[in-house]
Amino acid sequence: MDFMDSFVRDLEGLLGVSKPEISLAEMWRNSPPQSDANIELSDYLETAGTLPYYKDACAKLDEFVEGYKKKFYKTPFFHQALR
Predict the structure, then answer these.
(1) What range defines the domain where residue 66 resides?
(2) Number of structural domains found in the chain
(3) Would you give per-residue pLDDT tens digits along the chain (83 residues)?
(4) Which pLDDT value is given to residue 82?
(5) Which helix H or strand E contains 54, and what residues bound it?
(6) 8, 23, 41, 53: which could join 28 in a potential S-S bond, CB 3.0 to 4.6 Å?
């Protein structure tokens, strides 16, 4: 973070401005999305990037699943995050 802080300080000096201090967690608490009103931002972010990726990846596996079912007469195992 030292590099980034140094870069921002240099940029502030060059442009003659100062960056505003914000807290995303505080903004989330003050105005959360309706669907996630009771979840802390840190908890939401733990799965915000991974679960949609897994769901999209799983959707692309339909052909594999059908072939697996025909060959082994059962559904392949998927982690619960993919279900």
Answers:
(1) 49-83
(2) 2
(3) 699 999 999 999 999 999 999 999 999 999 988 887 788 899 888 888 777 777 777 778 888 888 999 999 998 988 776 66
(4) 62
(5) helix 50-59
(6) 41
Q: Are 8 and 19 in contact (CB under 8 A)?
A: yes
Q: Are residues 43 and 9 in the same domain?
A: yes
- Same domain for 43 and 59, yes or no, is no
Q: How far, in Å, CA of 30 to CA of 28, rounded? A: 5
What CA dihedral angle connects 63, 65, 68 and 74, to 10 degrees?
Answer: -150
Same-domain status, 78 and 64 = yes
Nearest to 28 by CA among 45, 46, 41, 44: 41
- The SS3 call for residue 13 is helix
Phi, psi dihedral angles at 21 (to 5 degrees): -90, 125
